[in-house]
């Protein structure tokens, strides 16, 4: 190794660049009793947009019946 060369692990700027975020995400968690009541799913979507969340975890959601429910983007 010459004077002008540096080992990558010895270079603090390259480590800082590796650890800096490429994009920010906002994550939230919401505990609900049920989303099957009228307007509850729409309320969850409003909360997602209000807090500018990228990802929202929903716990204890009780969907009555079987099948899938499609959520359209607001």
Short description:
This protein has 74 residues and is α+β, with helices and mostly antiparallel strands. It has a domain of 43 residues. The radius of gyration is 22 Å and the shape is elongated.
Provide the residue-averaged pLDDT.
Answer: 75
The arrangement of helices and strands along the chain is HEHE
SS-derived structural category: alpha+beta
Outline the biggest β-sheet.
2 strands, parallel
Unreliable spans: none
Total count of strands: 2
**How much beta, percentage-wise?**
5-15%
Shape: elongated
In DSSP terms (H or I, runs of 4 or more residues), the helix count works out at 2
Task: Describe the protein in words.
The protein has about 70 residues and is of the alpha+beta class. It has two helices and two strands, in the order αβαβ. A two-stranded parallel ribbon has the order 1-2. β1 (about 25-30), α2 and β2 form a beta-alpha-beta unit. It is elongated, with a radius of gyration of 22 Å. It starts with 11 loop residues before the first helix and ends in a 15-residue tail after the last strand.
């Amino acid at each position: 190794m010459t004077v002008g060369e540096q080992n990558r692990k010895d270079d603090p700027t390259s480590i800082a660049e590796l650890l800096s975020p490429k994009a920010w995400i906002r994550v939230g968690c919401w505990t609900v009793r049920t989303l099957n009541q009228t307007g509850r799913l729409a309320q969850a979507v409003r909360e997602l947009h209000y807090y500018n969340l990228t990802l929202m975890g929903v716990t204890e959601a009780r969907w009555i019946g079987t099948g899938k429910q499609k959520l359209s983007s607001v």
